[in-house]
Amino acid sequence: EKFKEGLAKTRDSFVGQMNELFAQYRSVDEEFFEELEEILIGADVGVSTVLELIDELKDEVKLRNIKDSTEIAPVISEKLAEKLDKSGEDTELNIQKDGMTVILFVGVNGVGKTTTIGKVAHFFKEQDKTVVMAAGDTFRAGAIEQLEVWGERVGVDVVKQQAGSDPAAVMYDAIQSARAKQADILLCDTAGRLQNKVNLMKELEKVKRVISRELPEAPHEVLLVLDATTGQNALSQAKTFQETTDVSGIVLTKLDGTARGGIVLAIRNELDIPVKLVGLGEGIEDLQQFDAEQFVYGLFK
Ligand code: GDP
């Protein structure tokens, strides 16, 4: 249901265009595929993914001897689901059974990182876990206060220092404090200023180093938060982060705010990082674990 609601914009646009396509082209020919290609690229599926998909569809059409365009509709959703559901990709968060799980959130300012941390905190609180948040974005004005607002809303402690302090020192404090509270989950915010890429990446490395010095297996997840409404830009952000940081999963936010939700396919296909969570609204509950089947269902139903 959440997927259906959150994907309304994408579905209206995509299904609308597909229906027009089927109405316009009765037979599955070269022109049909050209139009389909345009629709998919327009939905931000990404050129290389679209070309792959079209090739596979052409093969299927030959194999199944499909002539009429209406017959190809189920094949398209089948192929989309296949592309999304790459085998072996685990969308589960790596949560420790014993001891504390540390999750680091990285990503550019404005993508929805703080909101996501708040939603994730709420998600774990609902499971009766003890959660602590670390205000590791000491750079952006207001970032610490914003996290505190979420902390109050969710009922979770926020470990902070003053603005401008060393984020690695904040993390050190946060781990000590979370330990003292016997916390299950520590959620760490980080800075997102990409204007100074080299410094940011160095900062993230230092933060990770301090965390793993205190807790050898940690961070257990490094989640890169990307904004679905920025389309192909999100892909290039991911590539930048991937070059220097080990990202273990992606959170794709604001899927509800775009008609071009095909970006999920581009991300799944062009990056070697699983999409683990998706943001489907501004509310505290509007976060879902990614599920390929539900996603495709949400697109077509
Ligand atoms: P940050 O700078 O990355 O920490 O971004 P914020 O968490 O402050 O979010 C920026 C804006 O995006 C806020 O207005 C959020 O309410 C909004 N936002 C975050 N996630 C979602 C989402 O999944 N859907 C929608 N519609 N808005 C979102």
UniProtKB/TrEMBL annotation:
Q: Which residues bind GTP?
A: 107-114, 189-193, 253-256
Q: Where in the cell is it found?
A: Cell membrane; Cytoplasm
Domain of life of the native organism: Bacteria
Report the protein name in the record.
Signal recognition particle receptor FtsY
Q: GO CC terms for this protein? A: cytoplasm; plasma membrane
Q: How does it sit in the membrane?
A: Peripheral membrane protein
Any GO BP: SRP-dependent cotranslational protein targeting to membrane
Q: Name one Pfam family in it.
A: SRP54
Species of origin: Alteribacillus iranensis
Say what the protein does: Involved in targeting and insertion of nascent membrane proteins into the cytoplasmic membrane. Acts as a receptor for the complex formed by the signal recognition particle (SRP) and the ribosome-nascent chain (RNC).
Alphabetized NCBIfam families for the sequence: ftsY
Task: Extract the InterPro entries matched here.
Answer: AAA+_ATPase, P-loop_NTPase, Signal_recog_particl_SRP54_hlx, SR_rcpt_FtsY, SRP/SRP_N, SRP54_GTPase_dom, SRP54_N_sf
Q: Which gene encodes it?
A: ftsY
